[in-house]
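Morning!

As promised:
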Amino acid sequence: MSRLPDGARVQVKSRLVETHTRVPMYIQGKTGVIERCCGPYRNPETLAYGKDGLPKEFLYRVRFFQSELWEDYKGNSSDTADVEIYHHWLSLESEC
Amino acid sequence: MPHDHHHGPSIDPTRLARYQNLAKAVTELLIEKNIISSDEIDDAIKGMDERGPALGARMVARAWSNSHYKESMLSDGSAAAEALGIPVDGTKLVVVENTEKVHNLVVCTLCSCYPRNILGLPPRWYKSTPYRARAIKEPRKVLKEFGTIIPESVSVRVHDSTADMRYMVLPARPTNTAEWNEERLRELVTRDSMIGAEAAITPGDQE
């Protein structure tokens, strides 16, 4: 698993997950830009079930334009949202 | 500061009582089985009670007064807290700066993650369902309800604490404070200004 570079355009995967996840629905399927890599962290999706959360995964802060998240967004077109997302939920836009 | 919007309870009182009873029962069992002592529990509660917005205000006032400290705080919030003797106990603190171009607002849409080591316990409204749902979707409207009007020329950036980072806002230094020392500056830094819900207090502007 190679680390995604800062500034890369990424798409958040969209999948039906019935178990624990820290990826909110409103960013699933959306495209954003890597703001920074926060480093490797244990995976909350297995930690939540008493496992060790290993192997660690890269966690990124991904920046989205609000107007792309919400159809009826009423703020400024430059307004953004930064959301933390784990590596396995992201794919480079060119590979989508 | 106008703050008259409705923060309805987000937890049903009957359920809350059940969880309080459950917490009490677990606490008693842990003590009975000598896993932890009641002194250790008291110390932990006391330690938490001693944490509060005054810690964050110290960091902000230092950043306003010292550009090197500000740079280090923006690149590694946890290290900057430790540098002032504020233990962060492993919390990964990210500090985001309000400027002439960007206004930052912090929320946790999934639960109520908050930089407790730096700001103490979160306010009730921060944990409420309406804030968590609306801050991400209509931040300008929510900010307006706090009395914070963001001009068109400024972008609003919402930070959703979905995972391991915790966020604190570095508010802009108020005008007319050029001669102020750190100790005086601390008084201008409110809890809500470090969440991004309002600006720091401008001297002479207090209600």
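The first strand of chain A starts at residue 9 and ends at 12.

Hope this helps with the figure draft.
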